[in-house]
Q: What sequence folds into this?
């Protein structure tokens, strides 16, 4: 998407999602893991702890799991 085509969508508090669906278990094959831009290796828990403290980066992988 070109820079001049970028759009932002602002949601009110009432429009914010209250739950979401984990699509990963339903994919035909797993997604490639996100890579650390400095090392080029898959991100580990230590890499994510800077962004998501207190274990918030841990997600379930069960079919149909709602968060």
A:
């Amino acid at each position: 998407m070109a820079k001049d085509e970028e759009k932002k969508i602002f949601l009110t508090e009432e429009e914010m999602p209250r739950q979401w669906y984990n699509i990963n278990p339903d994919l035909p094959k797993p997604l490639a893991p996100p890579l650390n831009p400095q090392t080029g290796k898959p991100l580990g828990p230590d890499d994510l702890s800077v962004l998501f403290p207190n274990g918030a980066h841990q997600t379930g992988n069960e079919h149909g799991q709602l968060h």
The chain has one helix and no strands.
